[in-house]
Amino acid sequence: MRVVLAEDGVLLRAGVEEVLRRFGIEVVASVGDAPALLDAVAAGSPDLVLTDVRMPPGDGDDGLRAAVRLRADDPRLPVVVFSQYVAGEYAEELLSSGDGQGVGYLLKDRVVDVAEFVDVLRRVAAGGTVIDHEVVRSLLGRRRDPLARLTGREREVLALVAEGMANSAVGRRLGVTEAAVHKHVGSILLKLGLPPGVEGNRRVLAVLAYLRAS
């Protein structure tokens, strides 16, 4: 099996490389940032991608977003996310790609058996699906609460929008510019997965989501 490994922690990356090679797995590329991951997959045609979530250049969910992109380009490419936390914003998109086949999401601090870890990689490479139950529980919790993805400030903005305030009034209440409120509203609509269309209609849908979750 040929693997592309993406992990920005140098020592952890070296350790995972050693584990994989000890079990007869070829590491065709070992990289530390998302752009290098995309390039390595394009050049190496691996049997599996093993990637962390948080890595350069943005030090946000760059690794996971790269994985989503790779699966969009080739839904048959097996991908395992190996991270310290659940990144819900893109995790559901990744796990539902390719009809949910050949994909995995593991939490680093819950891997206690190296042989079992390698077995998971082989199962995913063969088209299986392996998701840590803590990941499942977190995603189900997010699905129950549509506002879980919002920041504290975004929740404040949405609460005031629910009171019928225009962006200018929300800005005055919070002591920020109208442009800042407009940006927050756009982010809220995006995170709630509301369909594009007339902004007023989307604001109503966002308010309904707020009221149902309150």
UniProtKB/TrEMBL annotation:
Record-listed 4-aspartylphosphate modification sites: 52
Keyword Transcription regulation: yes
PROSITE patterns xref list: HTH_LUXR_2, RESPONSE_REGULATORY
SUPFAM superfamilies for the chain: C-terminal effector domain of the bipartite response regulators, CheY-like
InterPro entries: CheY-like_superfamily (IPR011006), NreC/VraR/RcsB-like_REC (IPR058245), Sig_transdc_resp-reg_C-effctor (IPR016032), Sig_transdc_resp-reg_receiver (IPR001789), Tscrpt_reg_LuxR_C (IPR000792), WalR-like (IPR039420), WH-like_DNA-bd_sf (IPR036388)
Protein name from the UniProt record: Two component transcriptional regulator, LuxR family
Key words of the record: DNA-binding, Phosphoprotein, Transcription, Transcription regulation
Molecular function in Gene Ontology: DNA binding
Transcription keyword on record: yes
Domain HTH luxR-type: 143-213
SMART domains: HTH_LUXR, REC
Cross-referenced CDD domains: LuxR_C_like (cd06170), REC_NarL-like (cd17535)
Gene3D superfamilies for the chain: 3.40.50.2300, Winged helix-like DNA-binding domain superfamily/Winged helix DNA-binding domain
Domain Response regulatory as annotated: residue spans: 2-123
A biological process from GO: regulation of DNA-templated transcription
